[in-house]
Write a structure and sequence with these properties.
Layout: H1 3-7, H2 20-32, E1 35-36, H3 38-48, H4 52-64, E2 77-82, E3 88-92, H5 107-117, E4 123-128, H6 134-140, E5 151-155, E6 165-169, H7 170-173, E7 197-198, H8 204-214, E8 225-231, E9 236-240, H9 253-263, E10 273-281, H10 288-298, E11 304-311
Parallel strand pairs: 4-5, 10-11
Antiparallel strand pairs: 1-3, 2-3, 2-4, 5-6, 7-11, 8-9, 8-10
Helix pairs in contact: 2-3, 5-9
The chain binds zinc ion.
Zinc ion (ZN) binds next to helix 6.
Length: 312
């Protein structure tokens, strides 16, 4: 991280009830990205004298501070716990003025995307500050860990200082569900993917996008794709396509990249995108036109570079 970004991070949006000790403990990690390693989670829980689920609930206002909501003004915060690491990853919702609401990123999607990009293979739990909408229930149902102990945490207490919570499996929120197994698929979103793809390009941004395409999840169409966006200071964020058995809650590569960018730079920093490259395979569907449309809303001067990937 360069110094310019670090200097803008002096005022982390901590909830008022976070003590100076706790702020000091969390600030080093949160200055670099909106995630907290398991070791720090343990220290923070000890400091507060509470379990990690309660800590996740208490972090929700902090995650919600990252929301970009020019349309609704409704700030969603989510905190996901990696299945094997116990690391916490924040997520928040994002809206894009001037484009269809279907491009919006939901907080739960953002947290899952964040954890997935950081190498997590499934989640133990996801805390969220508002009941998951139907779209997110379906999105979460695609996750590899959903039937293996994954649970949703919701705050039950409404008074200040009352952080009681419920911990329920997704089947509570989505009974009689439709998911990957109904289409004969094993695994799921966040399972490790390494699609054997290559490109005829030496460009570094295209190769970053290729790595994202190789890691993308597209079991229903085979339309593997990924994007890499570059900021003015040279920082690159990638985005992976994440498909859904019900098709509609599928996560586009640009949504994925923007959600990651939002959670891995100082809270409410600009997009500052100066270049973008989409890599995708020949398939019955394409992300190209939708990507160009959304990119034009946030980076109107950037032309989308487009590279076809081929099987190795
Ligand atoms: Zn939602």
């Amino acid at each position: 991280m360069d110094n310019t970004k670090a200097e803008t991070m002096t005022d982390l949006p901590f909830p008022e009830d976070f003590t100076p000790e706790l702020r000091a403990l969390l600030a080093p990690d949160l200055t670099n990205a909106a995630m907290i390693p398991a070791a720090t989670v343990q220290k923070a829980s000890d400091l507060f004298g509470m379990d990690t689920s309660t800590f996740m609930i208490r972090l929700l206002p902090l995650a919600a501070a990252y929301a970009r909501v020019p349309l609704s003004g409704f700030h969603v915060g989510a905190v996901a716990m990696g299945r094997t690491t116990g690391n916490l990853y924040f997520g928040s919702n994002m809206e894009f003025s001037g484009h269809a609401l279907s491009f919006s990123v939901h907080g739960e999607q953002s947290a899952i995307n964040h954890a997935w990009h950081m190498g997590e293979v499934g989640l133990q739990a996801l805390a969220v500050n508002a009941a998951p909408c139907g779209y997110c229930r379906q999105f979460m149902n695609e996750m590899v860990s959903v039937g293996e102990g994954f649970h949703v945490l919701m705050r039950e207490g409404s008074d200040a200082g009352d952080f009681r919570y419920s911990a329920k499996p997704l089947s509570h929120y989505l009974p009689d569900s439709f998911g990957p197994t109904d289409l004969g698929m094993e695994g799921g979103l966040m399972s490790q993917q390494d699609q054997p793809l290559t490109i005829q390009s030496e460009d570094a941004l295209a190769h970053a996008a290729l790595q994202a395409a190789r890691a993308s999840y597209a079991p229903y169409t085979g339309a593997h794709c990924g994007i890499a966006v570059q900021q003015a200071d040279g920082t690159v964020f990638t985005g992976r396509y994440g498909e859904n058995a019900a098709y509609n809650p599928s996560f586009s590569p640009l949504e994925s990249a923007l959600a990651l960018l939002n959670m891995r730079q100082p809270c409410q920093s600009g997009y500052n995108i100066t270049a973008a490259t989409l890599v995708e395979v020949d398939a019955p569907i394409s992300q190209r036109s939708a990507t160009e449309a959304v990119l034009s809303a946030i980076a109107p001067d950037v032309h989308l570079s487009y590279v076809k990937a081929e099987p190795v």
